[in-house]
Amino acid sequence: MESNTLIRWFEDLTSDDVNEVGGKNASLGEMIQSLKAGQVRVPDGFATTADAYWKFVYQGDLKQKLQEQLEQLEAGRRSLAEVGPAVRKLFLRTDFPEAVETAIRQAYQDLSQRYGRDELDVAVRSSATAEDLPEASFAGQQETFLNVQGEDDLLEACRRCYASLFTNRAISYRQEKGFDHMQVALSVGVQRMVRSDQGSAGVMFSIDTETGFPDVAIINAAWGLGETVVQGSVTPDQYTVFKPLLKGKDGEESPFKPIVQKKRGSKEKKMIYANEGSETTTTVETSSQERGRFVLEDDEILQLGRWASTIEAHYGKPMDMEWAKDGETGELFIVQARPETVQSQKAASTLRTYKLQQKGEQILAGLSIGDAIAAGKVSRILSADDIDQVEDDTILVTEMTDPDWVPIMKRVAGIVTDQGGRTCHAAIVSRELGIPAIVGTGDATRELETGQEVTISCAEGDQGKIYQGILDYESTEVDLSDVPDTKTQIMMNIASPAAAFRWWQLPAQGIGLARMEFIINNIIKIHPMALIHYDDLEDREAWKQIRDLTQGYPDKQRYFVDNLAQGIGRIAASQYPNPVIVRMSDFKTNEYADLIGGEAFEPEESNPMLGFRGAARYTSDRYRQGFDLECRAIKQVREVLGFDNVVVMIPFCRTLEEADGVLAVLAENGLKRGDKGLEVYVMAEIPANVELADLFAERFDGFSIGSNDLTQLVLGVDRDSSELSHLFDERNLAVKRTIKRLLATAQEKGRKVGICGQAPSDYPEFAEFLVENGIDSISLNPDSVIQVKRYIADRETV
After folding, report:
1. Which CATH architecture has domain 197-337?
2. What pLDDT was estimated at residue 136?
3. Which of 71, 332, 337, 375 has minimal Cβ neighbours within 10 Å of its Cβ?
4. Closest by alpha carbon to 395, among 376, 382, 411?
5. DSSP3 helix / strand / coil % (the chain, rounded to 5)
6. At 672, is the secondary structure helix, strand, or coil?
7. pTM of the model
8. At what angle do helices 707-715 and 733-749 cross, to 10 degrees?
């Protein structure tokens, strides 16, 4: 029967049918056939075949006319701006062959009957037969039409899909990639519409799109139809799920909920079905409630994470997926899946890093895409009609981009947008092109002017920053090949969760120092005691700031616990199952006071460096409740998220009595040393820790040498004094003898000792001294890991 060559139902398709129905439709069929057992839901539908497309092209003399137009383009006799519209007009004026039209009408009737409808609303998507191959991403090159109802409207949507094979951007892309225009056919996928107009939708990757870290799924979510996320016209929520802990042992369901990031987007508008007029969809503003809420519940985030893992495992490669939630039934669906085409193609043997060499005045911030830095003059463009005004090697500033902008995006040094999330068009294309982008700034087009000199930095974590002027920066390539193993455990010092993901490729064996205070200062931003006493705050400005930051959290303390747990969870995920040693907060009183609402809860001290810090705070009535929140976060990381590789470390513990008091508070918060494998370390940064090392060893599982404070206190030198900087030296004999004594005592007591201070990163000979005296681990700044590891490997073999 001829219709079998013109129409294929999704359930009859596999990945082997790409030449017939394109990558997008073949993938949908593959998932329906193979992943139902994994409970991955994919809406039913059918696809027109390449054969149907060629029958359309051969109708009349359409092929000859197409070839004439394209030959004129190739010969330079006509421009792309002339040929593109002319070719599309040819398609739109061509009727379907009777056999193709009959087959589409019949298939649509059959699909409607499956759901008991006379005219089912469907999504109509283009799927080129050379589309979605890992080496050539054609995503976004052709058109999609949503909420199409009725046979006549469906046929018109199919015709427009055919025409979209020759959009200007698609013609240009094929020319660049070396594809013959007349060898690429188009299949149209017709799929039951998920009523996400009443629910939500978004994009999902089974790999971290910025760093290539393979163990997470990244989910973007917004209200309404998913086109707003794909187009980048909204800033969506972002959720990050650690995939290895989604599975339990022996196939059992995992007891953990490893969501390591939940970042609420502004979601200013949503796309929904149009009630009247010729348009099938319309865009409306979201309500204040929708903007303030997370789009997905935790169970839904975890479900999508499991599906991402299942789909990735089936295809054997990182995947780029679109999902939708039906607002009528509450069901989640996967509506598209294709191979991820950027991070999965990168070489794993090198790591390029960027670092600013100057400080500058920050103008704006947004989401960082990539980890590079670029500087140049601004080209501010508000419409694709004006892209010819963009100069080469400038910083393109616009509200949002779409595929029509690609030709100009290839010529600029960096991109800044008002709107969009990590999976918007500008983000996807900038990754493919290898240029930095900062998206979702909110008002870059109002703040930045054409010709203004700026530097955009994506090398400082999740937040991309735009600085005034041209700043100096350096780019370094780290060779990860042929790095020797060492007997000494080499770990990293990490402050931010984003940095942990950025350095995941380094051959480290865990994290020797994860600084909790960075998460509190940069992500939470609020003093924990101000959250506990929120209703009684006298500082009304602080009260308002806390109200705005904690929107969506009726329980203000939960805001602190969740965000701290997720931040620690991301750091722990980057090295799982290797140990990650998390130091409890070690702000000084002046630094705590700088947190929102902090001034009301901190004493003024003449010397905060030697004041109310570390262990002394944790049992004090002034801060005990704040420390309880820190403990709740650690417990959540280990027992809810599932990161039992997290080790607790207590800083600045002056006396044995303080040690006993802190251990008691930990136990009261469900963190008893030894229970569920919990280890508790103590910083060795005070001479008393060394003098009483044998007794501290009875209370703690290990020591971590804080060489900065230890040097300060052994030599009596203020580490921040410029006048005494020539005396501050960890290599001083008194400091080295102190460390040597600690190592000897700890070894005698069977306790591990590491170092997390700056000295081994700065002085390779100091690292050699530590190795010679039997240190168990050395924790380094990430950019020192390769160099010091090679140095230590050489010394260990001598």
Report:
1. 2-Layer Sandwich (3.30)
2. 45
3. 71
4. 376
5. 45, 20, 35
6. coil
7. 0.88
8. 120
